[in-house]
Amino acid sequence: MLKFRKLNAFYGTSHIIHDLDLDIRKGETFCLLGRNGVGKTTLLRSLLGIDVRTTGTIEFDGADISATPTHERARRGVGYVPQGREIVPGLSVLDNILLGCNARTDGQMTVPQLVWSLFPFLKDHLGRRGTNLSGGQQQQLAIARALATDPSVLVLDEPTEGIQPNIVEDIEKAIVSLNRDHGLTIILVEQKIRFARTAAHRFAILEKGRVAASGTAADLSNDLIHRHMGL
Ligand SMILES: Nc1ncnc2c1ncn2[C@@H]1O[C@H](COP(=O)(O)OP(=O)(O)OP(=O)(O)O)[C@@H](O)[C@H]1O
């Protein structure tokens, strides 16, 4: 579904991702792991075409999207839940969700049923400002906004980082359900090894912008984690 080939990524003259080859298969949950600063977010931004210069190719469903504008990648089916959520201040919960609809190809400007079934509480808060929700609720809102784009692949950057524990479980369940019950391909940057092992079919550990180790969830041994992540 997604193929990165000889991907290099730069901020100005800082070279962050080096000759990276990676395949994401349709229907899987793929987990990106690694210490802080190794380039996980930069890899996601390269996929979305946000704020980073790249060389090499990114193939999505058979087409090279590496020079395609961000909004067009969203229209093709890449949904993004950024680190820090980026809820738009001043907009209501409903309007934050509907922002996602702009990327739809079918012109629908309604909240997908899936959002209500995963996050029913949002219905009771539609008129509130999105930024007035708690951190965990904002994260759910950010996922709802990404789902409103009608994605085939959902890209999530540390979705439970800094979230209150009672909501972490709800978010983790939603992510697993989106993959298993709704068929979305998931790319997940995650620091929580426990959740990575539960959710992921396959993983890659990055080190200094390169893949240092990869495999199936069963290959994600304590030894690998210790060696490459110091945990
Ligand atoms: N906008 C930017 N301009 C310049 N350098 C940046 C920018 N964003 C990130 N970097 C640098 O790129 C490197 C990789 O950062 P990145 O955020 O991709 O790492 P990460 O693996 O996602 O880490 P974290 O877990 O801390 O988010 C770091 O050295 C970081 O300082």
UniProtKB/TrEMBL annotation:
Q: Which UniProt keywords apply?
A: Amino-acid transport, ATP-binding, Nucleotide-binding, Transport
Which Pfam families does the entry link to? ABC_tran
Which GO biological-process labels does this protein carry? L-amino acid transport
ABC transporter domain residues:
2-229
Return the SUPFAM superfamilies for the record: P-loop containing nucleoside triphosphate hydrolases
Asked if Transport is a keyword of the record, the answer is yes
Q: Which domain of life is it from?
A: Bacteria
- Coiled-coil segments: none
Q: Which GO molecular-function terms appear in the entry? A: ATP binding; ATP hydrolysis activity; branched-chain amino acid transmembrane transporter activity
Family, similarity comment: Belongs to the ABC transporter superfamily.
* Name of protein: Urea ABC transporter ATP-binding subunit UrtE
Organism listed in the record: Kumtagia ephedrae
